[in-house]
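Quick one:
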Amino acid sequence: MSGKINLLPHREERRKRARTHFAVLGAMTAALGAVIVGAVWFVYEQRIGAQEDRNKFMKSEIAKLDKEIDEIKEVKDKIAALLARKQVIETLQADRVQTVYLLDELVRQMPEGVFLKSVKQRGPGVDLVGYAQSNARVSTLMRNIESSPWLANPNLIEIKAVNLGKMRISEFNLRLALKRPSAAKATDGAKDAAKPAAKKG
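Output:
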């Protein structure tokens, strides 16, 4: 007599355990996935936050640099304005004594036998009208002007023979340029020009 064993309850129990195991494994996998996703999100959030902080820092530093650049430009503009004013003052200082050393230099460079009738200054140019005992005296005057430290570029506009009283002499019209020295040289020139007058007094 053979016995019969019913295996259905055992199989059903095994399936039930398998489903339970699969459910637990799935839940653990989902939880692990959620933890990984959360960790990745947290890391990226930290990086994004750090990058935003760096961006804010860079923006603030750029704003400071822009402000400093504007201040530097303002200082440069002030320096340029001061240099321009300094140049104007130096030019005025040099021009102030031009008449002094022009007359003094003309006296120094005037050869014997040459007399001036008029002296007209127009900026750096000077027009001389005068009389000379001969054309050679006018040539000597022009050579003296060329070698002068204050005068330059003599240009004879006209020379003609005229009668002055009982004398027959040459009347000339001469144009020359007045050199513009530095303010220091101009001041020294004015002092030198004033020394003979002081001695005479």
